[in-house]
């Protein structure tokens, strides 16, 4: 049931934000999705520093806030910012490979996995368990890497 809820939330978010794509030009779509991913990466960096590298003192409240931010980005309906013309074959301001548009089912699968793993990160962070958070951080990282490896140019 929980997986169905995550999937439903992701589909609903995409459906509700689809009209946004019609309002944003190609450059705005690219700019906004890059900003969203940079924000998620910044928050992932905070989790890495505290729960994985232990280079910064662990603060459970900060970790929960960071995980909530990553989950919010992952479940925000980012799919609406991947409209036609936003790939690197048609725009120099992105590293999004055209394969993304050629494989919509695979791209959707990768995006859903990111949303699921980020949602689980949020749930784990709420427990305050540093080791569990570090473990789930790794899973979110794998989800990010799966997309980068397949759809992001160097």
From TrEMBL:
Pfam families assigned: Cytochrom_C_2
The GO molecular function terms of this record are: electron transfer activity; heme binding; iron ion binding
Keyword tags:
Electron transport, Heme, Iron, Metal-binding, Signal, Transport
In the UniProt record, does the keyword Signal occur? Answer: yes
Q: Which InterPro entries match?
A: Cyt_c/b562, Cyt_c_II, Cyt_c_prime, Cyt_c_prime_subgr
**Superkingdom, taxonomy of origin:** Bacteria
Q: What is this protein called?
A: Cytochrome c556
Organism, by scientific name, is Marinobacter pelagius
Q: What is the lineage of its organism?
A: Bacteria, Pseudomonadati, Pseudomonadota, Gammaproteobacteria, Pseudomonadales
């Amino acid at each position: 049931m929980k997986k169905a809820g995550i999937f439903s939330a992701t589909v609903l978010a995409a459906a509700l934000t689809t009209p946004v794509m019609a309002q944003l030009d190609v450059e705005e779509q690219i700019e906004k999705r890059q900003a969203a991913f940079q924000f998620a990466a910044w928050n992932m960096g905070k989790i890495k520093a505290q729960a994985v590298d232990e280079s910064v003192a662990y603060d459970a409240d900060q970790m929960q806030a960071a995980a909530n931010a990553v989950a919010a980005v992952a479940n925000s309906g980012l799919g609406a910012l991947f409209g036609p013309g936003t790939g690197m074959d048609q725009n120099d301001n992105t590293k999004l490979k055209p394969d993304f548009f050629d494989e919509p089912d695979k791209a959707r699968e990768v995006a859903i996995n990111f949303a699921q793993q980020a949602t689980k990160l949020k749930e784990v962070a709420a427990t305050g368990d540093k080791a569990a958070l570090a473990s789930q951080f790794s899973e979110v990282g794998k989800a990010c890497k799966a997309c980068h490896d397949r759809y992001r140019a160097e």
